[in-house]
Amino acid sequence: MRSLQNVTWRLFARADAAMNRLYGWRFNPLYHSGALVVALFLVLLATGVVLLFFYRLGAPYESVAALTAQPWLGRWLRGLHRYASDAAVVAVVLHALRMFAQGRSWGPRALAWITGLVLVFVTLICGWTGLVMVWDVPAQVLAREGARLFDVLPIFAEPISRAFVGERPIPGAFFFLNLFAHIALPIGIGLLVWLHVSRVARAGLLPPRVLMWAVIGLLFGLALAWRAPLGPPADLFQAPGRAPYDAFYTLWLPLSRALPAGVVWLLTIAGGAVLLAIPWWARPAKRAEPPKSVVDESICTGCEQCYIDCPYEAIAMIARPGGTEGGRSALVGHVTPELCVSCGICAGSCAPMGVGPAGRTGRDQLAAIRAFIAARPLGARDVVVVACDRGAGGIVHDPAPGVRVWPISCAGNLHTSVVELLIRAGAGGVLVAACPPRDCWNREGAKWTEQRLFHDREAELQERVDRRRVRLIFAAAGDRAIVAAALREFQTEITVLAGVGAAEPDADVVRECDTAPTPS
Amino acid sequence: MSRLLAVAFVLVAVGGLAALSGVPWAAEPSSAAVIRLAWRARGERVQRCRRRSADELARLPVHMRQEEVCERGIIPYRLRVTINDSLTVNELVRAGGAESDRPLFVFDELPLPPGTYRLSISFDREEDPDHKKAGSADEESDRRETDVLRQTPPHLTLDSVVTLQPRTIVLVTYDDEGRALRLLAGPQFGP
Questions:
Q1: What is the pTM of this model?
Q2: Which end of chain A is less packed: N or C, by CB atoms within 10 Å?
Q3: pLDDT above 70 (res A230)
């Protein structure tokens, strides 16, 4: 499982880097695959509602053919509906693969994984019913295959396949039920999407506007330029010949038709079970699981920042046990371990360093950085790269010569006091290399880090720190060139600053941290 | 260069989407014609009864000690299809359902090269001397009479010479009103 994850991740890292070069990380569609699905779903809803007015249950093929022939309204409307549904499958698959590759499927994220799989299944069924509505040759083949599969289940009094033998007209109830399913399933999809994101705070449901409208515009252009496929009309007395099949929804059809219905069900159930079991397989051994965040109530000031910043709503503010004696705050943070993914973002959000996973709290970071400085004193021309060990062009695993790298599990975990301590200890500059914001494995790490460093978000970098010596860049795992270029530029600027007046080691911050309340 | 590549990638992606949205494929690639056998038959309800032994009865709770136990069902039919004097299908068609009391359904598709064939089909009730007609109470007699009227005859045959065009499907089905098998070479119903 791990090796499969690694291979998939390496492929994504390369694809991400290529897309970042072409479109920049803000508009990299691979970073927005999940949000693109939602945007395309909205397009499908809008176009579907209009298409409904043109569809006739009594003459399904004729109504769709007439619509497709309409140059002004029907052609592009049906095309947009069709191509958006196809693009949604691509986005869904990319999103699922990405979550798998990043190991974001187990623990508190298992609910999102499982509901995501159900969403994929429901989306494919919805697409199936949509293709059958057209009642062309592919629709006939799909309907008959569906009937064959359902007939082996002991749930229907009479075989459904009888409806398609040609002995009598296709019952109107069939088209009605199919249409009903095609309308009802999206309602289920809406509910599942809500459940899918129910465990995350501030779910980013839509991609950036530019990207969203660019994708919709492209699909619209395609619908204008290229008529949505429509096969010959279904004929129950003709063997289904060559016709255009939608590969996104019917890729399984050749295999399914070649196998007995029972075997198809067994394969489907087995495949589904394997996918559903991924959260259990992907979960690391108990001893290797990263520790959950813990709140040190003796330090907590009840400021609520960790509660606000937590991307997984794993922190709640509760009444302080023991009351407010000694002027303590009435509220105190409380981590629900079942919801915590151990991202450590709360550690970066806590000015007094009272929360975080063991070993990665602000205090732990300060202790580690002191050892880092003590191992080799920093010079005025030295740049320390504080790099996310999952992104940052892989600089953590393959440091550039002459550069000192301090790895961190997530840029959002970084406490700004670490940056201040490095500058005061004599470093010429600190380059924080975070993953691109929509690619953060912990969702909001890069966003909060930027705000803490440059926009005075709580637990902010103190005003006294020279911002010219602090730089934040966003770089994915494959963006080595971006890191190298940013580093060169920053080093040049630092050299100039060193000529003006070198940063002097300053013990104040060490003293301040030493005098902070100690955990009880 | 980078912009050109960006545009090129978009064009390839959109083109790929359009191409995969309508991949030409033939579900039935050969030119074979098909004889499709499809009908629903109402068989005769029968039951096979036996008396429980004293030991069996003793093992049962008092309130379940019924001396005679009967298994009900529908008499199966044997389907035989002969094409140009060659027996192609010879199978027993059993009633569906957990208690084999649902109607009998025939569904089979026989692909054949285009051409003219002598087709002979028989659908015969498989009589079993151990079976007896279901129900013995007088009040059921009316229902049984109705059943008999609606039942598929014990023997059905169809003998015909059919000419099959490439990729056409000929349907053999049971005409409930005419109480006979019939052959359809195209839709026999209105629009």
A1: 0.87
A2: C
A3: yes
